[in-house]
């Protein structure tokens, strides 16, 4: 994000040198630099502050070259969205990153992990930076009314984005607007009302996004900036989490018919792998993404959040560190039947994909080999994926992450060569997709299942499946990978027995709503696997029913008998009514409640 603006705003570093301390709380962030109000109360200054708010999207906020990487706050949400669900294992070795062990086994407390502390801090850093833009903006003399509205719209979009992250991770997350400041001496923002009841911040997030919709342009001068369509998409996402399908559906319908990227492209599905290739990023499918770049002189603009998530060992892409290994459960989800349809109820039964003793030899959805590296299957142009790339086979299974990794031919161009950090080759220019058009299509399919037409839901799901069925976008054992277009140049021998088909017309209507709901949810898992969404989808679909606990406990019961993370952690248990959210950091509760007044109340079930 930062480098995209450097061309037009050479002083954008203004927004990035406001470094905050934590003397009282994460809300108590007085500038420690030498900036005066005159430095920022100008169009250039407020734009610099806005860029500072965008820069937090990667989740790293100044930690990279000082106190180490904040793995727990990565913009991709791989820790919470994938590892804490059934998409992936922690990876590495059992003792590496012990806080992540606690998270993956759903045994974290409010006091025993730095990861949730990092996430909390990152979110409030983003919120505070967004609010600083809104505090400064009224005092800027050289900004037009039109430009001021756009700047305010972007700041409130970002404020909503960070609050949304807090809501889905911590649930009972305080809402902080620009009136909260050191100067106003009102830093202890409560998450409970006077009766002790938790405050619902969804309406505040909605209002910020509605303001953004009203004030943002459809086309922006840089692709990484939020535009009107992105704001509509995030408002629809909020409604989906609130189960307000009747409110989400009109927005989603509009986005499907006429939504466009910040660069002015009409939304469309593109070649699947183009969404995860730095050479083809910001395509017509990109709704909003963190803009990563490398070798631009900054050392800090790459995708630092996923620096651990590369295959490990000699000859492996990145060379380190073997985290976020896809699970056997996820690999099995890509099985298809003789007709090319998913095994909605039995995918995890019987033979196992890529298993050495009970090998599955049936059909597979071709998206599997863009989602994960599998032994013997081409890994871009690095050659066949190798079991030697698995750091600890006893706990990591046999699969490597792939959606965040670059091709060998892109090394040095889309991977970093400029930093002194130990893992320069694990820092790349792959964007982090927060929302892509496939999200919108599948959300609308959910809406159709709940309040509309099962036939239309089927049409939407088939759009996603038809793309997957296109042989031009498959992985080939016989071909040469071309990183310029994310395809193989010779397409005569697919890398496995790929077969994926659309649902026959009328299937959803014939089978009924429950079947259609299951099919849409399953499709979402296949399409968006390893993108940090899975845990939060399960959370959203649970809605107090306990299905999330059922799914994840069933997952653990099978995995503990495989060479996987749960083999060494067989007693892990997901607790209904507790583990759907993460604990508020105890240090923050202590600070906020130090006067004796309960301002910040812990989530239920955590001590």
Task: Give the secondary structure arrangement, pairings included.
Elements: H1 2-6, H2 37-40, H3 43-55, H4 78-83, E1 88-91, H5 98-104, H6 114-136, H7 145-170, H8 202-215, H9 228-241, H10 245-258, E2 286-290, E3 323-326, H11 328-333, E4 335-336, E5 363-364, H12 368-371, E6 372-373, H13 393-396, E7 400-401, E8 432-436, H14 437-451, H15 454-469, E9 481-482, E10 487-488, H16 507-511, H17 513-528, H18 534-542, H19 547-559, H20 586-592
Antiparallel strand pairs: 1-3, 2-8, 4-5, 6-7, 9-10
Keywords: Cell outer membrane, Membrane, Signal
Main location: membrane
Protein name: RagB/SusD family nutrient uptake outer membrane protein
Structural class: mainly alpha
Largest sheet geometry? 2 strands, antiparallel
Tally of separate helices: 20
- Series of H and E elements: HHHHEHHHHHHEEHEEHEHEEHHEEHHHHH
Residue fraction in strands: under 5%
As a whole number of angstroms, the C-alpha radius of gyration is 23 Å
């Amino acid at each position: 994000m930062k480098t995209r603006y450097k061309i037009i705003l050479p002083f954008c570093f203004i927004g990035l040198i406001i470094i905050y301390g934590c003397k009282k709380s994460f809300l108590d962030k007085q500038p420690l630099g030498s900036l005066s109000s005159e430095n920022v109360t100008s169009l250039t200054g407020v734009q610099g502050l806005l860029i500072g708010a965008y820069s937090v999207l990667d989740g790293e906020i100044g930690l990279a070259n000082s106190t180490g990487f904040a793995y727990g706050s990565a913009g991709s949400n791989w820790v919470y969205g994938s590892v804490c669900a059934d998409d992936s294992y922690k990876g590495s070795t059992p003792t590496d990153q012990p806080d992540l062990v606690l998270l993956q086994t759903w045994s974290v407390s409010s006091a025993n992990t730095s990861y949730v502390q990092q996430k909390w801090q990152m979110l409030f850093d983003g919120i505070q930076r967004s609010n600083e833009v809104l505090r400064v903006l009224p005092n800027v003399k050289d900004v037009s009314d039109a430009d001021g509205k756009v700047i305010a719209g972007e700041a409130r979009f970002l404020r909503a984005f960070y609050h949304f992250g807090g809501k889905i991770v911590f649930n009972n997350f305080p809402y902080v607007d620009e009136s909260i400041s050191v100067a106003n001496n009102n830093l202890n923002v409560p998450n409970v009302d006077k009766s002790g009841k938790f405050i619902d911040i969804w309406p505040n997030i909605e209002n910020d996004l509605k303001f953004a919709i009203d004030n943002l342009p459809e086309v922006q001068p840089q692709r990484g900036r939020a535009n009107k369509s992105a704001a509509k998409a995030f408002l629809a996402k909020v409604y989906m989490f609130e189960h307000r399908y009747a409110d989400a559906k009109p927005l989603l319908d509009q986005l499907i018919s006429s939504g466009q990227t910040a660069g002015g492209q009409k939304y469309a599905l593109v070649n699947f792998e183009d969404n995860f290739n730095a050479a083809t990023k910001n395509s017509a499918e990109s709704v909003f993404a963190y803009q990563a770049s490398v070798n631009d002189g900054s050392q800090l603009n790459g995708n630092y959040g996923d620096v651990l998530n590369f295959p490990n060992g000699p000859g492996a892409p990145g060379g380190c560190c073997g985290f976020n290994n896809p699970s056997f459960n996820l690999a099995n989800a890509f099985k298809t039947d003789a007709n090319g349809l998913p095994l909605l109820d039995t995918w995890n039964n019987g033979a196992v994909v890529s298993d050495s003793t009970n090998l599955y030899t049936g059909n597979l959805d071709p998206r599997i080999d863009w989602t994960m590296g599998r032994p013997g299957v081409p890994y871009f142009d690095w050659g066949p994926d190798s079991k030697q790339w698995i750091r600890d086979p006893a706990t990591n299974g046999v699969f490597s992450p792939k959606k965040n990794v670059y091709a060998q031919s892109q090394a040095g161009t889309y991977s970093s060569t400029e930093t002194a950090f130990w893992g320069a080759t694990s820092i790349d220019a792959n964007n982090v997709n927060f929302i892509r058009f496939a999200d919108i299509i599948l959300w609308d399919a959910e809406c159709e299942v709940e309040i509309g037409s099962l036939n239309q839901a089927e049409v939407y799901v088939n759009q996603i499946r038809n793309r997957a069925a296109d042989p031009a976008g498959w992985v080939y054992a016989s071909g040469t990978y071309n990183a310029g277009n994310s395809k193989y140049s010779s397409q005569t021998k697919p890398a496995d027995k790929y077969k994926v088909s659309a649902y026959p017309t009328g299937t959803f209507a014939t089978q009924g709503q429950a079947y259609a709901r299951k099919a849409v949810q399953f499709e979402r898992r296949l399409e968006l696997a390893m993108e940090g969404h899975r845990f939060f989808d399960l959370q959203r679909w649970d809605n107090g029913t306990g299905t999330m606990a059922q799914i994840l406990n069933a997952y653990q019961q099978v995995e503990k008998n495989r060479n996987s993370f749960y083999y060494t952690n067989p007693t892990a248990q997901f607790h209904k009514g507790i583990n759907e959210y993460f604990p508020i950091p105890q240090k923050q509760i202590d600070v906020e409640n130090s006067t004796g007044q309960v301002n910040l109340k812990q989530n239920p079930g955590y001590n």
